[in-house]
Amino acid sequence: MSGGSTFKTNPVALSELLKDCRDGVLQLPDFQRSWVWDEDRIKSLIASISRAFPIGALMTLETGGETNFKPRPVEGASPAVEERPSSLLLDGQQRMTSLYQVTLRGEVVKTKTAKGKDVERWFYIDIRKALEASEDRDDAIVGVPRDLLLKGGFFGRDVVLDLSSPEREYETLMYPVRYVFDWDEWQDGFDDFWRRKPDGEEMRSLFRRFKKKVLENFKSYDVPVITLGRATSKEAVCVVFEKVNTGGKPLDAFELVTAMYAAEGHELRKDWYGDGKGAPGRHQRFRDALIKPSGADSGILAGVGNTDFLQVISLFHTRERRREAEKAGKQGKELPNVTGNRQALLSLPLSAYKQYERQVEEGFMTVAKFLHTLHIYRIGDLPYQSQIVPLAAILADIGDDWGNLACRDKLQRWFWNGVFGELYGSSVDTRNARDFMEVPAWLRGGEAPSTISETLFRADRLKTMRSRLSAAYKGMNALLMDKGAKDFCSGQKFDDTVFFGENVDIHHIFPKAWCLGKGIRPEVFDSIINKTPLSYRTNRVIGGVAPSEYLARLKTAGMTDASLDENLRSHLIDPELLRADRFEDFLVSRQRCLLDLIREAGVQVADMDGIYDDDEGTANDDDDIEASRTVV
To answer: Which is the most buried residue in 38, 50, 347, 493, by most CB within 10 A?
Structure first.
């Protein structure tokens, strides 16, 4: 190595690499996927080496450094239990496992056909075809079943190649790939078989040419190996592996942390997925959180991933490290960052995981309760999946204080600012850390967090909120239910029982069919201003007719105009405008009401003339706002 490089490249004999696989000197990191190569790829690999063609470099990681993964042997190898590898194979598992299986293992290879059918194969090289320049070398590599009888014919029952004994191998000139590194015994048997035959000398000469032109390529074959030194960081190992692992699934931080914890005897995967014996892991506990019997098959936390959970633990761990540094007198750039980013996860010690895991799980469970208080019941109605991470961290930190009314009001204000500020769409690592540091301090009497101070919602944004994928669109629907919207027909508020039992969803107020009939453009009538939460039954009653027509249908037995009007007003709808089918006036009126509702939730709102001031109700110039606020 030179110039501070953390890797070196060396050619290593293929035979030595495969022996290292057999003996456990070279193993795999536990996060590696299983061996999956099919029969055709194995044949092509054998053919390439038989012609001394390159098969690509391998990449290994020296063990004994800071990146300490739990090892596992190459599939089919059975090294001594106490054998610790000197290197781990990061890139080249499929190639090395395939070659080990067909050469040194000495057992039938369990693989698949190109169509995915499970098969068992012994591999042979057709000696004549291998020496014929006009033949495709891949065609010289033959796979035969476990019983060594290759069948064909019209019904596929005729034996077309019998290799059930060494004599049949000699006679058919089919060389077993399992002997490519040690051919002496097979050659002795071959010579004895042909010595008594009329054309024996020709056959023995043929084999000598085969040995020189084909078999010796295996014995002399060198593979370039890039070796990452012990000093290589966990982050570098992860990045390198992802760049070379183009054929597999992306490697996430959870898989790497799982492998590192396994080296210390802790099975992180069981924590998340369960023990397979009936005890559910966190993944299942989160999916089951607050599911209603008549509702969905998974709860609001079903989208929480294993890395989300680790991120929250990392926020706690890195905050504690920062506090320790502050106590030690460090300042400024000397202080470690509070973060849950990828690099922090790869540096998360098992001790920190064990210290915070129960507290963090409780934080996530409280998230489900908190969201239900805001009438967000289904994962599809959650404005931002990413906002759950800082929310869980905050709730885990404040514990039972979240039940305090004043604390919960503040927490709701932070939540709605994040939603209507549309702040959690991408690159949220920095914001998560700021929220975790700022919001609990604010809940305990400190300054308002930047998520609140940076948010300004513009009036015209309501007109463009048309997609169910929009966080603010979902937020508007939930906020209406949270502030007391009642079903037009039943007059029931949308608690979880009504929500699931009545199949509540977002529907048009002025129906789509009526709007199209009046020549109103979809970009106008599809905005959230013309939508509201309604039960499936109510939406069916509304149909596609004018509001003035469907209002008469909505009056059930015993319902008065006054009670129907009350239900409409709970959705911030002016009943008179609806009865008169005054669509444009309705849009203006409801837009203003929705803006007021957002403002009441603690979000600063600006219209075309300026911004509502929370205390004074006065307007400021937009130019002044833009100098200090993030305008959405």
So the answer is: 50
